[in-house]
Amino acid sequence: MKKLFAVLFSFFVVAAAVAQEAPDAMVQQVTEEVLDIIRKDKDIQNGNTHKAIELIDKKVLPNFNFQHMTALAVGKEWKKASAQQQAQLVAEFRTLLVRTYANALTSYKNQKVVYKPFKMNPADADVLVRTEIAQPGAKAIQLDYNLEKLEAGWKVYDVTVAGISLVTNYREQFAQEVRNGGIDGLVASVAAKNKSLEANQGKAEKK
Predict the structure, then answer these.
(1) What is the pLDDT of residue 16?
(2) What range defines the domain where residue 86 resides?
């Protein structure tokens, strides 16, 4: 499932957008823009994860609410964490997602993104944007985005692939880490995963 999230997460990469822009229009416009960048960037296509991370930092991160995502992923234990622990968790979870999904940008193989019909009321501040990944010779995969409207504009706080929520998927893992070593143990565990991913990506780029 992690690999599936990694492949599909890359399809939603967004540039800065004005707050008034409809969330579905934002998703479609910038997704196509960034996919076009990937198609033209031979370094990313050839596995340059460092360049992929730079692209994620620039295009993805400003449009995700990592505070909300981390709180959802940690679950009920989130309120028990101190302000410092919460800040550490947000930073490490952010890094984990970036490093986990950097390889996804190098795995793009011209799959087609289909945007489903979207409706919302003017007062809506929490919406679901539905898309589908069409794969040649395989069943299409549903890919949905939960967005919330903040003062800075629409931000993603969850991604659901084939009916499975990204934050729920991590919640199960994080809960086990908290049971084993408390909040500090969770922070240490995620930090260790980040170091391992960084080392593995460095080795891959040297080959």
Answers:
(1) 42
(2) 2-206
**pTM, two decimal places:** 0.82
Cβ–Cβ < 8 Å for 186, 86: no
pLDDT average, residue stretch 192-200: 88
User: What does residue 149 show for φ and ψ, rounded to 5 degrees?
Assistant: -95, 120
Residue 160 and residue 116 in contact, taking contact as beta carbons nearer than 8 Å: no
- What is the CATH number for 195? 3.10.450.710
Domain count, the chain: 1
Q: Could you give the CA distance from residue 99 to residue 103 in angstroms, rounded to a whole number?
A: 8
Per-residue pLDDT tens over the stretch 40-52 = 888 888 888 888 8
Asked if 114 and 140 count as a contact pair (C-beta separation under 8 A), the reply is yes
Distances from the Cα of 171 to the Cα of 41, 85, 125, angstroms: 35, 17, 24
Q: How far apart are CA 73 and CA 2, in angstroms?
A: 15
- DSSP letter, residue 47: T
State the Cα–Cα distance between residues 18 and 4, nearest whole angstrom: 30
**Residue 162: both structure tokens together:** 């084939």
Check: CB of residue 158 under 8 Å from CB of residue 72: yes
Six-digit token string for 176? 């086990």
Which residues have C-beta within 8 Å of that of residue 203, sequence separation ≥ 6? none
Over residues 5-63, the pLDDT tens digits come to: 555 555 554 444 344 578 998 888 777 877 887 888 888 888 888 888 888 888 778 88
Nearest residue to 103 (alpha-carbon basis) of 52, 158, 165: 52
Question: Tokens 């080795």 identify what position?
Answer: 203
